Automatic annotation (TrEMBL):
<protein>
    <recommendedName>
        <fullName>DUF2271 domain-containing protein</fullName>
    </recommendedName>
</protein>
<feature type="signal peptide">
    <location>
        <begin position="1"/>
        <end position="21"/>
    </location>
</feature>
<dbReference type="Pfam" id="PF10029">
    <property type="entry name" value="DUF2271"/>
</dbReference>
<keyword id="KW-0732">Signal</keyword>
<dbReference type="InterPro" id="IPR014469">
    <property type="entry name" value="DUF2271"/>
</dbReference>
Length: 163
């Protein structure tokens, strides 16, 4: 009896219209900056909703936790609150170049967020360098591609939304 029920459920799922998965691919570009005092930047990528509330920290690249607060907007919006989940998305700082980051359309609790307006935020801070923040509004539920302007610590970035 259970087998028939399971087969009917699977068949129903396969035949019913399914919600397409939403994904945002963010190409983070770290420019090559010369000089004897070059240190790799700390970088945070996070998502905010239409009300500028933090939805999810996608990734944080760092060396020492003491300097995370130098990424000021991320720290105020999400960093100081997401410490329990931070280990799951933290990695080492990256060399200059383009690095791909994926947001799977979920919030900090792992639940899918509804289609609508969100903002991709990318912030970088570098010792003996400067700070840069790039913000790009996106619309989940629509296929879109954006290219951002370069900032001091961040090169041009491509953000691709697929549904």
């Amino acid at each position: 009896m259970k087998r028939k029920h399971l087969a009917g459920l699977v068949c129903g799922l396969l035949l019913s219209p399914m919600v397409m998965a939403q994904q945002v691919e963010i190409q983070v570009n770290l420019p090559e900056i010369g000089g004897a005092m070059y240190y790799r930047p700390y970088v945070a990528v996070w998502i905010e909703d239409a009300s500028d509330n933090s939805v999810k920290t996608v990734t944080v690249w760092r060396k020492e936790a003491d300097w995370l607060k130098d990424m000021r907007r991320w720290w105020r919006k999400a960093g100081r609150y997401d410490q329990g989940e931070l280990d799951a998305v933290t990695g080492a700082t990256r060399r200059p170049g383009t690095h791909s980051v994926i947001w799977d359309g979920t919030n900090q609790q792992g639940q899918k967020v509804p289609a609508g307006r969100y903002t991709v935020n990318i912030e970088a801070a570098r010792e003996h360098g400067s700070r840069s923040l790039v913000r790009q509004p996106i619309e989940l539920g629509k296929n879109q591609t954006f290219t951002t302007e370069a900032a001091e610590e961040l090169g041009r970035m491509t953000i691709k939304v697929t549904r």
